[in-house]
Amino acid sequence: MSHQLLKGKRGIIFGALNPQSIAWQVAEKCHEAGATFTLTNAPIALRMGEINALAEKCNAEVIGADVTVDADLENLIDRSMEILGGKIDFILHSVGMSLNVRKGRAYTDLNYDFMHKTLDISAMSFHRLLQTCWKKDAISDWGSVVALTYIAAQRTFPDYNEMAEAKSLLESIARSFGYHYGKAKNVRVNTISQSPTMTTAGSGVKGFDAFFNYADEISPLGNAPAEACADYCVAMFSDLTRYVTQQNLFHDGGYSFTGVSQNVINTFGSK
Ligand SMILES: NC(=O)c1ccc[n+]([C@@H]2O[C@H](COP(=O)([O-])OP(=O)(O)OC[C@H]3O[C@@H](n4cnc5c(N)ncnc54)[C@H](O)[C@@H]3O)[C@@H](O)[C@H]2O)c1
Questions:
Q1: In a domain, 30, yes or no
Q2: Residue 41 lies in a domain
Q3: Whose CA is nearest to atom 12 of ligand 1?
Q4: Which residue of 139, 173, 193, 227 lies most exposed, with the fewest beta carbons within 10 A?
Q5: Which among 129, 199, 209 is the best mutation to test ligand 1's pocket, defined by most ligand atoms within 8 Å of the CB?
């Protein structure tokens, strides 16, 4: 890639677990675009070791951090600034996990200890991250922070379960912190609402294949692949999007604004 949109920029990328991870694609694209960054994931995920291949390819250091632990985030931010040689210009939060989904609990039978954990990992962690950066004044003026979300924050997808609440909270934190960080430092904070994508987290949702295929049929452009999401993240981290903040940005091939498609009409026409 020749555009080098992120040349000279320093970043932190959360959530690359394996090559299917959206964060993995983002890391590769940021590297191609000239950025330097650190990679981070939960210590337990690092033990799987796959991230080391990505780190080598991107010439990036890996720093373990559980997003629910303040001390881990503090260490991550300090170490990243040390390694990269200055304040951070961009951050990708690509983290999500629901114990109720994992354990197959229905939405009408949630375990609340699990739900606390889900909200902590998938949503409050975004506030925790932003607040840690705020207190350390770790993000450069006009820096850009993006978290990944899903349209279940606005519409009901029965098997997405409590992750719908987590995504609503995540998007709200982007709006609220976006205000404070914008006022203080011109830092922008946004969420990107991505199409269903075949990843470890995505395919853990019951009936995922069906709503992947349904979304693909509805969207005029078809589902947006992870690689295209990564391109969008690069654009959001670049200086070409400096006045976009507090937004939930749909990256879904048009799904969110389409009522019905001809293929779906054809399928149900004879009912
Ligand atoms: N796959 C989809 O269909 C889809 C669609 C829209 C949005 N998203 C969102 O994209 C983001 C990335 O998910 P993905 O689909 O690439 O799946 P993924 O499973 O590859 O990524 C999820 C990541 O969260 C990390 N994580 C979990 N608990 C953590 C903790 N306590 N501390 C630090 N990291 C932790 C995992 O290790 C993993 O790397 C998530 O926020 C997800 O909700 C996914």
A1: yes
A2: yes
A3: 94
A4: 227
A5: 199
Ligand 1 pocket (Cβ < 6 Å) reads 15, 17, 21-23, 41-42, 45, 66-68, 94-97, 121, 148-150, 194, 196-197, 199-202
Q: Which of 41, 67, 95, when mutated, tests ligand 1's pocket best, judged by the most ligand atoms within 8 Å of its CB?
A: 95
Which of 50, 67, 91, 94, when mutated, tests ligand 1's pocket best, judged by the most ligand atoms within 8 Å of its CB? 94
Task: Give the number of domains in the chain.
Answer: 1
- pLDDT 10s digits, 22-48: 999 999 999 999 999 999 999 999 998
Asked if residue 151 is part of any domain, the answer here is yes
Residues 218-263: tens digit of each pLDDT: 999 999 999 999 999 999 999 999 999 999 999 999 999 999 999 8
Instruction: Tell me the whole-structure pTM to 2 decimals.
Output: 0.98
Tell me if 5 is assigned to some domain. Answer: no
Distance CA 219, CA 170 (A): 24
> For position 158, what pLDDT does the model report?
87
Residues spanned by the domain of 60:
10-268
Please, what sign has the CA dihedral across residues 169, 108, 94, 63? Answer: positive
The CATH number for 153's domain is: 3.40.50.720
Give the span between the Cα atoms of 269 and 271, in whole angstroms: 6
Q: Could you tell me how many residues make up the chain? A: 271
> Is the pLDDT confidence value at 1 over 90?
no
